[in-house]
Write a structure and sequence with these properties.
The protein is an alpha/beta fold. Helices cover 55% and strands 9% of the residues. Helix 4 links the parallel strand 4 and strand 5. Helix 2 packs antiparallel against helix 3 and helix 4 packs parallel to helix 5. Bound molecules: zinc ion (ZN).
Length: 329
């Protein structure tokens, strides 16, 4: 079952959804919540398929769509008239989108047994849109399932939340992310291993990393970090400047630096728990070279700089002062 893969770690959601299908008892509204890139939308689409599949099968106790019938194909290509996708237009989901949805739902489905509405990134509904959706949820149309997906459930209106049955999605296992990278993105196994370790169980994050030269930049940044205490001030400032110019990479840079110093600290007590496993030799060397107190301090400096930047401090100045601080062993 090729479509089943990204669903594979989500055992609990899968059991719940399978039970709905088995009992023929499909709820009016579901909320899929959990970290980004763990299969919430894929699962929503699979569920829409499973509700309407003409040749649904059962595997290991789960109900899964065939992926091949007329209905499954239409849903996959987003051409099914009764499977409606709503995504943010720009940064938000607008009231006009929900009004249009409400008008569509007031009509009978064209052909589906169970009409499905998938509202992705539901937290980006503004208040008007949320209230309009609430009206729909209060008088749910027959034979229709509305699935909201979000990684920020607390940003939804509580009244909307309370109308949905909530299903939690967990981060994917590291090996799942690794295998998906190898199978679907044709990433080299060694690279896939490094990315999977650093992607926090998110496949979408891992894909971004595999496409963005992330590995190369990480290697460069860690080499810079490891030698920062030997650099003249001019080079330290130049490093800060070059990081400050690459705003898109900055959150990643912080993550990489943070994880590095954390690993040096962790290695002292639990070497098996480090994240930068491909660099174990360097981690060991630097961990022995630096005291725990000095590492705590460095981690604090990194976190403070990150906070300052989030609070709109001057990015270059914040990075300069961070790099100078990190250069003192
Ligand atoms: Zn099918």
């Amino acid at each position: 079952m090729p479509q089943f893969e990204s669903f594979i770690d989500q055992k609990r959601p899968n059991q719940i959804l399978s039970a709905f299908l088995r009992k023929g008892n499909i709820p009016h509204a579901l909320l899929f919540y959990g970290p980004p890139g763990v299969g919430k939308r894929t699962t929503a689409m699979l569920f829409a398929k499973a509700c309407n599949c003409l040749h649904r099968t059962s595997e290991a106790g789960y109900r899964i769509p065939c992926g091949d019938c007329r209905s499954c194909r239409k849903i996959a290509s987003e051409n099914h008239p009764d499977v409606i996708y709503i995504r943010p237009a720009g940064a938000v989901i607008r009231i006009t989108q929900i009004r249009e949805l409400s008008a569509t739902l007031s009509l009978k489905p064209y052909e589906a047994k169970t009409r499905a509405v998938i509202i992705a990134d539901a937290h980006s509904m503004n208040t008007e849109a949320g209230n309009a959706l609430l009206k729909v949820l209060e008088e749910p149309p027959d034979h229709t399932i509305i699935i909201l997906t979000t990684d920020q459930p607390l940003d939804l209106l509580p009244t909307v939340l309370s109308r949905c049955q909530q299903i939690r999605f967990k981060p994917l296992a590291m090996n799942t992310v690794k295998n998906l990278l190898i199978d679907k993105q044709k990433v080299e196994p060694e690279t896939a291993q490094i990315i999977a370790t650093m992607a926090n169980g998110s496949f979408s994050r891992a894909m971004e990393m595999s496409k963005s030269n992330w590995i190369k930049r990480r290697r460069w940044l860690l080499a810079e970090m490891r030698t920062v205490s030997q650099k003249p001030v001019g080079s330290i400032l130049a490093l800060a400047e070059s990081l400050s110019k690459d705003r898109g990479f900055l959150p990643d840079a912080f993550y990489i630096i943070n994880t590095w110093f954390r690993d040096l600290l962790v290695y002292k007590w639990s070497p098996q728990r480090i994240v930068n496993k491909d660099l174990t030799d360097s981690v060991r060397y630097d961990s022995q070279r630096l005291s725990a107190a000095s590492l705590y301090l460095k981690i604090k400096f990194v976190q403070n700089a990150q906070k300052d930047i989030l609070r709109n401090a001057n990015v270059r100045l914040a990075l300069e002062s961070l790099m100078v601080r990190l250069s003192h062993d």
